[in-house]
Amino acid sequence: MKVLVLNGPNLGRLGRREPEIYGTTTHAELADLCVGWGRDLGLEVEVRQTNHEGELLDWLNDAADDATPVVLNAAAWSHYSYAVYDACAQLTAPLVEVHISNPGQRPEVFRHTSVVTPHAEEVVVGHGIEGYRLALERIARD
Ligand code: DQA
Description:
Layout lengths: L1 E6 L11 H4 L4 H14 L3 E6 L3 H14 L3 E4 L8 H8 L5 E5 L22 E4 L4 H12 L1
Parallel strand pairs: 1-2, 1-3, 3-4, 4-5
Helix pairs in contact: 2-5, 3-4
The structure holds 1,3,4-trihydroxy-5-OXO-cyclohexanecarboxylic acid (DQA).
1,3,4-trihydroxy-5-OXO-cyclohexanecarboxylic acid (DQA) binds next to loops.
């Protein structure tokens, strides 16, 4: 089964971006890990990252057309993008939301809401990079 792992803005700088919050694993390393975890679970994983909201919307629309399961870390868009909300609403295959940190426990109140959560089968927060493995395991269970 094919699975898309989609990462939103600023996650391309993983490893260099606020490592005390997000860790030292780079996005390229994360992508390799996800592909390997997926292989072990019998999943064909493709990992993408974008800083452009429209690109993420196109990927989500394609996933809706193809009924492809999605692991989504929409990063800051999670907190305010109604376009991402509407795109997630159209998905029919499982959607698992991931955040490396636990946004609900962070001091910025804007992080305490997610437009993705209402559409997600499961939400994985605060497990660091390992959260992506947990999300893929959730998809593999279906
Ligand atoms: C994040 C949490 C968001 O609040 C933040 O805007 C991000 C990353 C996470 O993975 O912990 O960019 O989604």
